[in-house]
């Protein structure tokens, strides 16, 4: 199996990170894992580990989300997901409006503006990857957008828990904030479980609900692009856009709710999922080149910062209005 060397390398970093997270729960295993990965990212490693690191950063992360479902009660999932819809709608609007206004002010290409807006609003790199072929974005636009989003993902893992404690957010409040205001699923899960297990569970559910918004948004963009140009809509596939691991999470939640597995087995699978998060974050950290991200220019970073700040502030304001914070 060609992925094994990379998987083992990520696992090697995840074990001490997990132990450190147990000793310092305020920081948590996922944060220690991504930090160790970033510290070693400059190390000249064998080419044989690269396929495994890419596999771990994506597939193992998705597996961890599915496993976390075994500790979720479906009634709770539906309740939290429903509560988050209003805030998700508000943050989506804030991200797209900010992207349009600031993108025009910075004179960024339209595709870059759309991709950064979608990445901030929905689910980071996954949303960008799904949207790019729909709008016919150039490789350069995709690279700038993913690099920008990823930069703020890394910052969010460290900054959000600190700000959450500073603001006195409870587990539900922080989970809602992380789930609606942090870009990629990996960073949401890492920040959430670094805050507390309850916040991590809440943030994961909110983020998965938010991830589903990729379907109507991408469909809308596809229809717009198809109307604008016949060739722009070619190759569009709903199956490629839909995040299948969400179905796995829901299936695991159904099994957990039914009580078929029993509390001990469900807890074991949930804890395994949390450890898999640390493994995935180690791989993501190892593939992070902060210096290269900063070379892409200041304008996309400024746009990403503006969208990110707008989403974070709107999420907190909405929580304050509905009494969650």
Short description:
The chain is an all-alpha fold and 325 residues long. The chain is built from 16 helices and no strands.
Kindly describe this structure.
The structure is a single chain. This protein has 325 residues and is mainly α. 80% of the residues lie in helices and 0% in strands. α1 packs across α14, α3 runs antiparallel to α14 and α4 packs across α16. It is globular, with a radius of gyration of 19 Å. The model has no long low-confidence stretch (mean pLDDT 83).
Topology:
Elements: H1 4-23, H2 29-39, H3 50-68, H4 74-106, H5 110-121, H6 125-135, H7 139-167, H8 171-181, H9 185-195, H10 197-211, H11 214-228, H12 238-241, H13 244-258, H14 263-286, H15 290-294, H16 298-322
Helix pairs in contact: 1-2, 1-3, 1-14, 2-14, 3-13, 3-14, 4-5, 4-10, 4-16, 5-6, 5-7, 5-16, 6-7, 6-11, 7-9, 7-16, 8-9, 8-10, 8-16, 9-10, 9-14
**How much beta, percentage-wise?**
under 5%
Largest β-sheet summary: none
Individual helix count: 16
Computed Rg: 19 Å
Shape: globular
Low-confidence stretches: none
Give the mean pLDDT: 83
Number of strands: 0
| Helix/sheet category | mainly alpha
Question: What is the terminal separation in angstroms?
Answer: 48 Å
Features:
325 residues; mainly alpha; 16 helices
């Amino acid at each position: 199996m060609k992925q094994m060397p990379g998987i083992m390398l990520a696992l090697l970093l995840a074990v001490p990170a997990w132990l450190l997270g147990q000793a310092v729960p305020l920081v948590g295993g996922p944060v220690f894992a991504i930090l160790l990965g970033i510290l070693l990212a400059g190390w000249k490693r064998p080419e044989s580990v690269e396929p495994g690191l890419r596999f771990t950063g994506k597939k193992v992360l998705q597996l961890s989300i599915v496993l976390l479902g075994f500790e979720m009660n479906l009634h709770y999932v539906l309740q939290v997901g429903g509560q988050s819809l209003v805030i998700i709608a508000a943050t989506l609007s804030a991200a797209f409006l900010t992207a349009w206004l600031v993108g025009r002010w910075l004179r960024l290409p339209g595709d870059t503006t759309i991709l950064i807006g979608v990445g901030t609003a929905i689910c980071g790199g996954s949303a960008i990857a799904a949207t790019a072929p729909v709008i016919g974005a150039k490789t350069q636009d995709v690279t700038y957008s993913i690099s920008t989003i990823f930069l703020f993902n890394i910052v969010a893992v460290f900054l959000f828990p600190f700000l959450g404690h500073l603001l006195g957010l409870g587990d539900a409040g922080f989970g809602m904030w992380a789930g609606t205001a942090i870009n990629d699923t990996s960073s949401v899960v890492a920040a959430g479980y670094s805050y507390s297990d309850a916040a991590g569970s809440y943030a994961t559910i909110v983020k998965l609900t938010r991830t589903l918004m990729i379907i109507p948004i991408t469909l809308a963009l596809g229809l717009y692009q198809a109307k604008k140009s016949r060739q722009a809509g070619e190759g569009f596939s709903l199956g490629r856009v839909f995040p299948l691991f969400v179905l796995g999470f829901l299936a695991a939640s159904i099994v957990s709710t039914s009580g078929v597995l029993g509390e001990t087995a469900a807890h074991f699978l949930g804890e395994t999922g949390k450890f898999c998060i640390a493994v995935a974050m180690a791989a993501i950290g190892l593939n992070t080149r902060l210096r290269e991200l900063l070379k892409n220019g200041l304008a996309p970073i400024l746009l990403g910062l503006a969208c990110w700040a707008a989403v974070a502030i709107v999420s907190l304001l909405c929580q304050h209005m509905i009494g969650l914070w």
